[in-house]
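Question thread 4412

I'm putting together a teaching handout and wanted feedback from people who do this every day. The idea is simple: show students a protein as raw sequence, then show them the structure tokens that encode its fold, then repeat with a second protein so they can compare. Below is the first pair exactly as I plan to print it.
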Amino acid sequence: MWQGRGVGARLLWPLSLLFALMVTIRRFGYRHRWWSSRPCPLPLVVVGNLTVGGSGKTPLVVWLCHLFLSRGLRPGVVSRGYGGNATHWPQTVTPSSDPRAVGDEPLLIASATGCPVVVAPDRVAAIVQLMAEQKVDLIISDDGLQHYRMERDLELVVVDGERRFGNGWLLPAGPLREPLSRLDEVDLIVANGRAAPGEYAMTLVGERLVNLIHGGEIPLNDLLGKTVVAVAAIGHPERFFRQLERAGVTVIRTYFEDHHPFNEADISPLLAQGTIIVMTEKDAVKWRPWLTKMGEEGERIWSLPVSAELPQPFTERLLHLLERNHGLKTTGNTGLPPL
């Protein structure tokens, strides 16, 4: 519905006007100090989007962590921990954390980067705990563009290169959280896929499958001509399914709601189909609590990790902004190859 302006969207359009008024009042209130924002003592980079649903923020956050690490910096990450059911917040995330408590995306970031990660619905509280526990040089916020209690130094917006901004209307008639004019205020715009003028194109690359039981790897091309059950509980699953199909795989599409917390009732029917199961890396972390019960059945389960690739001009512009605006030295000799 959000990709067009049909009957359903038009019926909801009056509510979008109300939502737009709420967004405007909220922005005006923070801008004029009706509500206070909390400054961060360290450079704070926010990676967010304007639309509801997956656009590719998490791969970009992972890429940023590796970039800063390669420059001799110590990045830390804060996130909301969406989908986590912890009884208290903030929560420090490690690669061994329970995804049901802290959420899937923070666990993926911690596992993929080794960087300290703290989650909380109140990202200001997450920042306070992160700085108390770890010595970091800068902080990356996974999502949080609209979390105005958190003052930020750089804003990076990720755009879905396929769906773009849908019908261009605000919630609930369209997918927008804020008006498109908000893009005029951000520092850098990254397009996951095809980029428009003024945007930097990000490509997600995944060519090897990882087994969830023994950790072994095989080329994706090994599935050429085979039929697999493809499992996706992400914001835009079609991109994942098409990636498998381009590799010559016959895909049985299996959809779950974004951030779905998998349980045995979900997993048992998938195993009963008796074929290879392939899922995203984000979904794979949520299967960990059930792997010990699967035995040999689990050897049919694979994940397809993806990594982000961005053009050199984006790297240069990002580092220039950090050095110029915040005096953060990002060109030291670390002994590591440049990205």
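The second pair follows. I'd like the answer to focus on this one:
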Amino acid sequence: MKKRLVALAVLAAVSGAALAQSSVTVYGILDLGYQWNEVPADVGTTAAPRIEQESYSAINGSHVYGNRWGLRGSEDLGGGWRAIFTLESGFNVDTGTAGQGGRLFGRQAFVGVDGGLGTLVAGRLATFSSGTGSFDMFSHVDPFVTGFGLAGLANTFISANALRVDNAIAYRSPKFAGFQGGIGYSANFSGAEQAPSGENTTAFISGLTWETGPFYAVVTYDAIDPADSSNRPSQKHLQIGGTFDISAFRLHAAYADQSNIGSVAFQPGLGSGSFVPLPAGVPYYDSASYMLGATWTIGEFAVLASYQWADADAQPTAAGANFEPDYNIWGIGGTWNLSRRTMLYTSYASRDADGTLLGDAFNAKQFAVGMVHRF
């Protein structure tokens, strides 16, 4: 009898140890609130279009963070290494529909290994520059964490607009002397690869951060190469940003050099397209973007503010006019942490066009108030 009890005790201990070496976690974010928007609307007729600013109210989700649920897991492989995976699905909490163009796990879907030499993964990834996902390096630069609708950096920085790549492999280094880097490659930017290989839109992604004391600095670079048959140049995004903490204040600054915008057509869930519609005769254009901002934290409250502007190079259109999509955005907001998992928020932002062929047809305003709950 004693022998059986000892055997059962040993079996229980071994089973417990095995279970302790692997884990799967269910997690998610729910973000829902009220919005008031003022946007351009065509109030004319087909024969005589007339653009005017019109307003509407809405119950909308994903104002601060994209609504999601996911599975995250790991298994101890020994020697300081572990197998890891993440499956993350986006959805619209106000309508119950799928996000990212209807993909089952459109936000992230990857498997890999993690250890003392870094992390190596493959699958569908949000890039180092994307402002979202497990490998994001850039959202910290924005007071609005690349969210908050019209107020966020995702309105002028293309990669920070949740850039994601399919069929990717990526490596992220461990931190060393405050530095951490990442590099990756996508064999086809969206959808399954095909033959010949030249008909795949490939992507190179990279990022490097440096953090020491009150300073945080990051530079990311993405290059997306369209299929050979498109005869279009690579679309390239260089993003540079940093923060500096002074007591309760955090100062933010960022810059982006974005070339051949429009070479890669916009696709849902990829965040690659132009922020403005391109007129006939303009297949792509170049633009620089800038942002200055600040965060003031008082206990569980935070006040956020930023000003950003896009400065594009002029391009002639098919009609002989100049297309120069310059615009600026200013935003202010606040958050209140009710608990570790629940937060209230509010924000107001305004977008104003400065360049040609935009005008009132691009101006917009937005007010929002809502709640975020994590699980």
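Top answer:
Good format. For the second protein you could add a caption like this: The helical segments are 2-20. Residues 114-374 form a domain with the Porin fold (CATH 2.40.160.10).
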